[in-house]
């Protein structure tokens, strides 16, 4: 997987370069305010390499704000440490962090075709054309869109667009992929198919995913670990089983048992 930073040796075998630390993300005591409103209150969390971690909580609980801070799109008001892949990035903006984000609104370039969209970030990073193309095509295969490489973005379905958005992020080989309600715009049948696909992709790439959702069903199905948020705090964390069987508060019990 990508997290092993594999290198191919002369005899064609693959060996791992310096392995990533097992603890890929650590956030200690994060506070974020908007004016006098505290959106995130003393939030600490961590994620291990290859882990699927879900930030789950009702609308307004601070999930997107936390994700934007992890992405570097917003700098936190206060944090003791924000360690990403062994480096403190608390003050490092988005363009210098090796993370990628997928939002519900795909933000694809409508005037570029599928392949060009996936290549775009590599072009910005000045990756040579041949390598760019090869990496983009390989990633399109991973998301089962190889046959659509030259298709116009406007001609794709919602699910296909979301897969292009995924490929466009993953091709950059981020340390962590951040996903903010990525399936929110899809209808139910497609959403369930995409849950399975996303999980398979995460497993096969061996990448760390931080996944935001307000759907307890989605969190229970997909996560290695769930961080349950309410009013700017992480109120409980655990495996899906823990969260469902042993909710630690009335809020957790009602939220985890909620029908969607
Ligand atoms: P979630 O993603 O869980 O729905 P958000 O992180 O978007 O929650 O928002 C958390 C709280 O912070 C909400 O009350 C929201 O209104 C507030 N908030 C988010 N962004 C801003 C902003 N730019 N300015 C002021 N308040 C904000
Ligand atoms: Mg949100």
TrEMBL record:
GO BP field: putrescine transport
Keywords from the UniProt entry: ATP-binding, Nucleotide-binding, Transport
Domain of life: Bacteria
Keyword Transcription: no
GO annotation, cellular component aspect: ATP-binding cassette (ABC) transporter complex
Protein's UniProt keywords contain Nucleotide-binding: yes
GO molecular function terms listed in the Swiss-Prot or TrEMBL record: ATP binding; ATP hydrolysis activity; transmembrane transporter activity
Domain ABC transporter, residue spans: 25-256
Family indicated by similarity: Belongs to the ABC transporter superfamily.
Protein name: ABC transporter domain-containing protein
Shown residues in whole-protein numbering: 18 to 277 of 397
């Amino acid at each position: 997987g990508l997290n092993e930073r594999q290198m191919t040796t002369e005899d064609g075998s693959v060996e791992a370069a310096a392995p990533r630390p097992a603890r890929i993300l650590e956030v200690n005591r994060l506070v974020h305010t908007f004016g006098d409103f505290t959106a995130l209150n003393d939030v600490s969390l961590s994620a291990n390499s290859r882990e699927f971690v879900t930030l789950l909580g009702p609308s307004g609980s601070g999930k997107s704000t936390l994700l934007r801070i992890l992405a570097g799109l917003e700098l936190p008001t206060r944090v003791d440490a924000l360690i990403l892949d062994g480096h403190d990035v608390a003050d490092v903006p988005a363009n210098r962090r090796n993370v990628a984000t997928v939002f519900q609104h795909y933000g694809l370039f409508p005037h570029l075709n599928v392949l060009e969209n996936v290549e775009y970030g590599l072009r910005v990073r000045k990756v040579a054309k041949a390598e760019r193309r090869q990496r983009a095509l390989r990633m399109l295969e991973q998301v089962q869109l190889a046959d659509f490489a030259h298709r116009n973005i406007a001609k794709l379905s919602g699910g296909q667009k979301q897969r292009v958005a995924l490929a466009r992020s993953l091709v950059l080989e981020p340390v962590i992929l951040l996903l903010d309600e990525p399936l929110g715009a899809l209808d139910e049948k497609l959403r369930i198919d995409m849950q399975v696909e996303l999980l398979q992709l995460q497993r096969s790439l061996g990448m760390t995913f931080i996944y935001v959702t307000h759907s307890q069903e989605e969190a229970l199905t997909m996560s290695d670990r769930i961080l349950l948020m309410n009013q700017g705090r992480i109120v409980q964390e655990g495996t899906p089983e823990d969260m469902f069987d042993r909710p630690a508060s009335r809020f957790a019990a009602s939220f985890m048992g909620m029908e969607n």
